[in-house]
């Protein structure tokens, strides 16, 4: 059934470390051979062996309207004929920036980069350059890309592979990264009381998606905001996952909390490699060439990436009903899965907000990284493979969020719920 994938994986491993260009794809958390994809349309992906899957990863977020969304594909085709890169400014960059500024609360300016990693790395540099301070606070199990400073107690693949300390990240860099448990305001207060004058920023996933999906507890983000205000610290919302997904204006809009700097990725590029960071003019004008905080990119603002992102964002902006539909679909799925798992007598927790969700097999609420780590990973592994065999493609790690697309139909959701029932039956 997976023979072509197996052959392709074997070949890939000869020339690509681990056979993949990003670790989580290797199925290390769940075992088995990663499935090599061939094409996808709407809610479905087809692998190299011709198996079809309902997709709950959606390229880890960008495909919010499903794969190969026609308007995005057409726009890319047209723009590709103009040239795939100029290395000079184009009008579309301004149009995208204007659109983003109009959608996201509390920002005046945007700088485009090529990935979420670059976005977070650059936002942190800006915060350090602006405040003249070196340290920053991050949360255990949050992931802000693979820049050195963020690889301390990180989520996502770092957590899946159980890498406690990343070789290559120097001690001196790691010393400036202060890390505390998610949702633990007293721990932040204590750190700030001790070292506040050296702390440039607090960076947080306003809804965490890199240790499964974990919601901020009431008062957590509000508390971070007031700690930052009282201590001259900048609050960075990493909205690489949540941006344009939880609402048009992301978590800032949905949860009603203002950040000083915001980072984006995924949806902002419509599936092309794009990231961005944004903030108030007064802050953003510390970036070169206006200010001295240097940041640059040969392919930044790439015309194909810009038109793909613009087309997708424009659709989301014009059709707010999409968010309502996504919420309805997520609720339907969550309720169906709760019922299916409950009926099978499986202890579980499903966290979700909007179209982000995850399933942990545990009897206690999953509120931080240590709770997520304590869940039954063996059962998750069997659940994942049971679903895969039945044509449902879930994230291959419990330390990842599921992302729904609006291409999903009620039939797809029912199919998924039935697959969960059948999987649990088979596991029994
Ligand atoms: N921040 C968050 C919240 C993310 O989820 C990710 C990637 N999953 C990143 C940053 C890094 O983005 P990229 O993989 O595009 O570098």
From TrEMBL:
Catalytic activity: (S)-4-amino-5-oxopentanoate = 5-aminolevulinate
Swiss-Prot/TrEMBL keywords: Cytoplasm, Isomerase, Porphyrin biosynthesis, Pyridoxal phosphate
Location of N6-(pyridoxal phosphate)lysine modifications: 266
Enzyme Commission numbers on file: 5.4.3.8
UniProt xrefs under Gene3D superfamilies: Aspartate Aminotransferase, domain 1, Type I PLP-dependent aspartate aminotransferase-like (Major domain)
Top-level class of the enzyme under EC nomenclature: isomerase
Signal peptide annotation: none
Pathway: Porphyrin-containing compound metabolism; protoporphyrin-IX biosynthesis; 5-aminolevulinate from L-glutamyl-tRNA(Glu): step 2/2
Cellular localisation: Cytoplasm
A molecular function GO annotation: glutamate-1-semialdehyde 2,1-aminomutase activity
Cofactor: pyridoxal 5'-phosphate
Database matches in Pfam families: Aminotran_3
Subunit structure: Homodimer.
Family classification: Belongs to the class-III pyridoxal-phosphate-dependent aminotransferase family. HemL subfamily.
NCBIfam families xrefs: hemL, PRK00062.1
Name of the protein: Glutamate-1-semialdehyde 2,1-aminomutase
Species annotation: Chitinophaga defluvii
Name of the coding gene: hemL
